[in-house]
Specification:
The protein is of the alpha/beta class. The strands form four sheets. The chain has a seven-stranded mixed β-sheet with strand order 6-5-4-3-2-1-18. Strands 7-8-9-14-15-16-17 form a seven-stranded mixed β-sheet, with helices on one face. It has a two-stranded antiparallel ribbon with strand order 10-13. The longest helix is centred in the N-terminal third of the chain and has 14 residues.
């Protein structure tokens, strides 16, 4: 799993940062999280394949998180994109974007679907053979959610040497690897699954916490994730402004990361009032040392946290 940072600024674009947008890549599938202005150009700069983007998750309906969507969807139509594209958003957003796309791209080459999110309680909004995506209710000036990407448990590794030595039939290998089956040889000898396999690779998880007032309860919701992205619009010098505008400071984001025991913290959604993120990083690292600042063009691997 990898996170591609396409935009990590706040409401007003600047020469340093674009509005919020990320693309999570997992086993060849691309999933976009928020779609601020400039999203499609940033995808091109990163060399991300539009044809592999099937799901777009919108955390809330503020312009810096969704105004890039009509342009992106229009471009995908011009590329004769087929298949289905699913936008995960709230009911108001589905109605609004459906009208926009029906006006500009009525004869679409792909099937545009909307999955309606409930901002009041967590829900699994996508499940594949290897991954789940669930929502995370946040506190902002409008209904808002974050998203948690979790890999499902992986199968154990089959020991090829044992399979060849015992001449295990091919028809039995899947059950041994994926279902934990033992194997009994034709002459009655039992070989346990632990003898026939080695432990599975650890599964990883990524939590995206978009615009939100500081929520101590988030620590329990994102407990133990390998990578946490948490908005840090302001440093401590603007803590009052953060509270009034339902945003968080870098210190507050780090407190959530520390209390949740996450592996790594990524700060983002920076106000254009700052010339750099040095203050954000210093204040966050004083609380949670394993912190980095997002930047456009950055690719962040989601690796298992040291336990």
């Amino acid at each position: 799993m990898e996170i591609n940072i396409l935009g990590c600024g706040s409401a007003t674009p600047s020469l340093r940062h674009l509005p919020a947008c990320q693309v999570v890549e997992h086993r060849g599938q691309l999933m976009m999280v928020d779609c601020g202005e400039g999203a499609q150009l940033s995808m091109r700069r990163k060399g991300l394949n539009f044809g592999r983007l099937n799901h777009i998750f919108l955390s809330h309906l503020h312009g810096d998180h969704c105004l890039g969507l009509p342009g992106l969807l229009s471009t995908m139509d011009l590329q004769d994109r087929g298949g289905t594209i699913t936008v995960h958003t709230f009911a108001d957003g589905a109605g609004m974007f459906r009208k926009i796309m029906d006006f500009f791209c009525r004869e679409r080459t792909y099937d545009l679907q909307f999955n309606i999110l409930d901002p009041r309680s967590p829900q699994i909004v996508l499940e594949t053979d290897s991954l789940t995506v669930e929502t995370l209710p946040l506190k902002h000036r409008v209904p808002a959610v974050g998203f948690i990407f979790r890999e499902k448990p992986k199968p154990r590794h089959l020991r090829g040497d044992m399979a060849r030595f015992l001449q295990i039939p091919v028809s039995r290998l899947k059950g041994i690897k994926e279902d934990g089956e033992d194997y009994i040889t034709p002459d009655g000898r039992l070989f346990t699954n632990e003898q026939l396999t080695t432990p599975a690779d650890p599964s990883v998880s990524y939590a995206y916490c978009s615009d939100t007032l500081y929520m101590p309860s988030l620590a329990e919701a994102v407990k133990g994730v390998d990578v946490l992205y948490h908005e840090a619009t302001y440093a401590d010098d603007c803590a009052d402004k953060a509270r009034a505008r339902f945003h968080s400071t870098a210190s507050q984001a780090a407190t959530v990361a520390r209390d949740a025991g996450v592996g790594r913290l990524v700060l983002g959604h920076f106000s254009k009032a700052y010339r750099n993120e040095e203050m954000h990083l210093a204040q966050a690292r004083a609380i949670f040392p394993n912190t980095i600042a997002a930047d456009e063009g950055m690719t962040i691997p989601v690796l298992p946290a040291a336990k």
